[in-house]
Amino acid sequence: MTGDVTEALLEDLVRTSFAVMAVLNRVAAENDLSLTQLRALAILRDREPTMAQLADYLGLERSSVSGLMDRAVRRGLAQRTASREDARSVHVGLTAQGHRLGAELAAHVAGLLAPMTTRLSAAEQKRLAALLSGMLDPAPPVTR
After folding, report:
1. pLDDT for 31-52, tens place per residue?
2. I want to staple 77 with a disulfide (CB 3.0 to 4.6 A). Which of 7, 62, 72, 89 is the partner?
3. How many CA atoms lie within 13 A of 106 on its CB side?
4. Is the full-model pTM beyond 0.85?
5. Are 28 and 38 in contact (CB under 8 A)?
6. pLDDT tens digit string along 51-94?
7. d(CA 95, CA 132)
């Protein structure tokens, strides 16, 4: 890849990330959530990790995730359960209310991103999804 192509790709990636982050920040603020709380809800929509795993997913210290989950539990969005495998470990998951909110937020984000994504044909959207997955799966390690 030449320098010009790399530079253009990086510029487009950054511009895209700014546009997506603006949508995520807007949706979080409209729902009295921080961006990190929104990310946690998204992560918990399809899994019940341990607190340590959630900290790794978010790239945060465990103490920060503990406070984050305390607030989510108080709002009725999340719950903690003792691990069956390790008594020292605690899993976190969404409550029914948390799942409902997560689904609403995902739909809202999709609607706000639609003006960007619908510019592409169905085939282009599928190809972009495959390219992004190829870049991100498995997710790069988060450094603290």
Report:
1. 999 999 999 999 999 999 999 9
2. 72
3. 13
4. no
5. yes
6. 999 999 999 999 999 999 999 999 999 999 998 888 788 999 99
7. 30
Residue type at 33 in one-letter notation: L
Distance in angstroms (rounded) separating the CA atoms of residues 30 and 32: 6
Give me the numbers of helices (H) and strands (E) for the chain, helices first please: 6, 2
Q: Which amino acid is at 81?
A: T
pLDDT recorded at residue 84: 85
Contact status, residue 40 vs residue 54, Cβ threshold 8 Å: yes
CA distances from 51 to 59, 74, 84 (A): 12, 17, 14
Domains and CATH numbers, the chain: 3-136 (1.10.10.10)
Cα 4 to Cα 16, 131, 135, distances in angstroms: 18, 20, 20
Check: CB of residue 102 under 8 Å from CB of residue 41: yes
